[in-house]
């Protein structure tokens, strides 16, 4: 059944029907379509546009359709153009004439705008839970690794010593920003478009505030043209999802590097790894690589929707139907990536000994050796040159700064004394960095306390 067939005298070409139809993917929000319709008929009855008997029959019919769809007793079929026509057709079959009154004061344009908003709002709640779960796992690991020393990097070169807790904290910051972006989008989009009609509202005396209240919105939208043509909230969501995917990809890139034989900072659990069909020694970080790879897929959805929307005049255009498959896929992709990534890092083994050795052998304490000389009265530029000579000496001998004898230190600069070893120990290098945001243990404990409050864990 088509909702618009009265004006036409010929059947739609089957290829045209297939190309135009959206039921293959918009059936995904049958629950939201029924939820919106129930609120709509309650409002119609309140306004005297529908009898109480018709309201009750329609609501009972819609609840029955939802129950049958969820149990599998009713199957969505492709002869219907979209989920809206399917629900209305089945409803009319079940409750008779009353079903035909469901669409009073409503257009498919504001109906689909409502369904997509309700669906997006529900999915944001699920994404919120997944990001929260990842943040809690990161926080747990941060507490466990306050004294796990490792090299910090710039340009992928070892730079200064930090802790694994501090490194993980950088990702906590990223994913927490992602969480706040999701909250912002939900707040900004939470206005109800139902009642906007096709584009110019309706002559029926609808109570849009009441409908919005029933559906948990903050109020009705204030411009009927924008209401049916707005896809900004989806572009914002796809942008936020692209940022989540980018953060996951960055972390996965590091895990892939850390998992190599050359680094051996981590060992990925067998349940998140695969082997090679011909090389028995291999243990591949496939999940991390797939998450990294799927980032491009999420980016593609954002660029596709931006491109779709850039040339659409007001108000509704059929182009906008392209928003659904893109958004559905991006949401499902990111949800899967978040769940798998959280499981992967929760089961991963961090090699404390290897990380610490790497920090020592990478001269990450060189800056602290220079600071030691400055504190003894040497100009920083001269201290920088002296420590450069120390590093060159160590490279030639294949040792770390910690392994040099005091005589070797004094041969390069007589300023060095026995206290140099304490000054350049990894513990000292990290612990004396105490400003908020630095890797020192006391500073990190304060930050972890702040993070716990953010997640309502205290």
Whole-number radius of gyration?
31 Å
Q: Percent helix among the residues? A: 55-70%
Residue windows where pLDDT falls under 50 for at least 5 positions: none
Arrangement of strands in the largest sheet:
1-2
Strand content: under 5%
Classification by helices and strands: mainly alpha
Backbone shape? elongated
The termini sit apart by 56 Å
Number of helices: 19
User: What's the total count of β strands?
Assistant: 4
Largest sheet: 2 strands, antiparallel
Order of helices and strands: HHHHHHEEHHHHEHHEHHHHHHH
Q: Mean pLDDT across all residues, rounded? A: 93
Task: Describe the oligomeric state of these chains in a short phrase.
Answer: single chain
Describe this structure in words.
By secondary structure, this protein is mostly helical. Helices cover 61% and strands 4% of the residues. The chain is built from 19 helices and four strands. It has a two-stranded antiparallel sheet with strand order 1-2. Strands 3-4 form a two-stranded antiparallel sheet. Helix 3 packs across helix 6 and helix 10 packs parallel to helix 12. The longest helix has 37 residues. It is elongated. The mean pLDDT is 93.
């Amino acid at each position: 059944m088509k909702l618009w067939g009265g004006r036409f005298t010929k059947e739609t070409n089957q290829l045209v029907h297939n190309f135009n139809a959206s039921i293959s993917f918009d059936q995904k929000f049958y629950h939201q379509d029924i939820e919106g319709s129930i609120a709509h008929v309650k409002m119609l009855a309140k306004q005297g546009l529908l009898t109480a008997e018709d309201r009750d029959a329609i609501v009972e019919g819609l609840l029955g359709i939802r129950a049958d769809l969820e149990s599998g007793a009713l199957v969505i079929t492709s002869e219907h153009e979209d989920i809206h026509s399917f629900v209305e057709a089945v409803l009319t079959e079940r409750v008779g004439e009353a079903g035909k009154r469901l669409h009073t004061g409503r257009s498919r344009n504001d109906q689909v705008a409502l369904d997509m908003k309700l669906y997006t709002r529900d999915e944001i709640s699920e994404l919120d839970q997944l990001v929260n779960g990842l943040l809690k796992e990161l926080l747990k690991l941060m507490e466990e690794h306050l004294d796990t020393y490792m090299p910090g990097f710039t340009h992928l070169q070892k730079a200064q010593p930090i802790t694994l807790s501090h490194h993980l904290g950088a990702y906590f910051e990223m994913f927490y920003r992602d969480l706040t972006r999701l909250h912002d989008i939900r707040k900004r989009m939470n206005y109800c478009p139902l009642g906007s009609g096709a584009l110019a509202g309706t002559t029926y005396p609808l109570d849009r505030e009441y409908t919005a209240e029933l559906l948990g919105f903050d109020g009705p939208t204030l411009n009927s043209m924008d209401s049916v043509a707005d896809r900004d909230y989806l572009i914002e969501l796809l942008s936020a999802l692209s940022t989540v995917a980018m953060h996951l990809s960055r972390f996965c890139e590091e895990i892939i590097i850390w998992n190599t034989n050359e680094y051996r900072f981590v060992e990925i659990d067998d349940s998140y790894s695969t082997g090679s069909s011909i090389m028995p020694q291999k243990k591949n970080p496939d999940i991390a690589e797939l998450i990294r790879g799927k980032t491009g897929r999420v980016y593609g959805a954002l660029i596709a929707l931006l491109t779709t929307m850039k040339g659409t005049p007001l108000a509704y255009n059929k182009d906008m139907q392209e928003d659904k498959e893109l958004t559905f896929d991006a949401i499902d992709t990111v949800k899967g990536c978040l769940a798998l990534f959280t499981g992967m890092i929760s089961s991963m083994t961090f090699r404390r000994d290897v990380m610490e050795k790497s920090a020592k052998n990478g001269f990450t304490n060189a800056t602290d050796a220079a600071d030691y000389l400055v504190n003894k009265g040497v100009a920083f530029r001269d201290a920088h040159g002296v420590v450069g000579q120390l590093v060159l000496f160590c490279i030639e001998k294949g040792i770390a700064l910690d392994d040099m004898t005091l005589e070797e230190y004094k041969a390069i600069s007589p300023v060095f004394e026995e206290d140099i070893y304490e000054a350049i120990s990894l513990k000292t290098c990290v612990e004396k960095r105490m400003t908020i945001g630095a890797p020192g243990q006391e500073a990190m404990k304060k930050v972890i306390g702040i993070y716990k409050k953010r997640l309502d864990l205290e």
